[in-house]
Amino acid sequence: MTGYAPLDTLKPVTEGLWIIDGPSVTASGVSLPTRATVVKLQNGELWVHSPTRLTDALQAELEALGQVRHLVIPNTKQNTFVEGWQEAFPKAQTWAAPGVADRAAEHDVAIKINHDLRVDQAEAPWVGQMEQMVVRGSTTHREAVFFHNESRTLILTDLIIALETENLPAWMRPLVWIFGWDDSDSMMPRDLRRAYRDKDALAEDVEKMISWRPWRIILAHGKWFEHNGADELDRAFRKLLRGRQWEAALKNMNEKQRHHDQ
Q: Per CATH, is 10-261 categorized as 3.60.15.10?
């Protein structure tokens, strides 16, 4: 049970942006709900982030909305359902974060990657409409994040997981708490915190996301944030950011004191 029924159907979020709540997948013994995000680009093409299960009914909904032209695999863990989408929409281009193609080949996953996502700028089909960045700091987890400018929506995948434990069996809840996946204080999962060894690079990229001033944040797993997105980022990554914020405050104070003494 995901708690996000109905599944496999378009749910409008704001103009030009929808989510699709998909079925749960098993990760480390826990049922992890899935979520795709659909953006209608200015030319009418559909951009689909982290595709979930595709049903005939969902395909019909999408075809009524526009032409699916871009499938986005934001990290190496998000390719479970992509093959079905590629078969249903053969004209769609598949864009993947660094490492996705290599991991798919290692595991004999039959998906075709047309383009590797650039690490620090948006691709031509959506330049000016969305910001794009592959978050730095880890060699094992490379996640591409996106910011839809018009709706001020940040689209994340695994950097924050917020599972609502009331939707889970009682025996599963302690695992969710241990992993740092619960929504009571949704933060970066503990395994990812360990994977990101270059904390300064990670912090700089989180600060960049905050500078985009997102109003909402769509997450691929669990509940998502409908408002105050920048504040939620600051809260979720507070342990990472506080030292840098303290140093910046001290530097600012010292500079003011120096100017005053002059």
A: yes
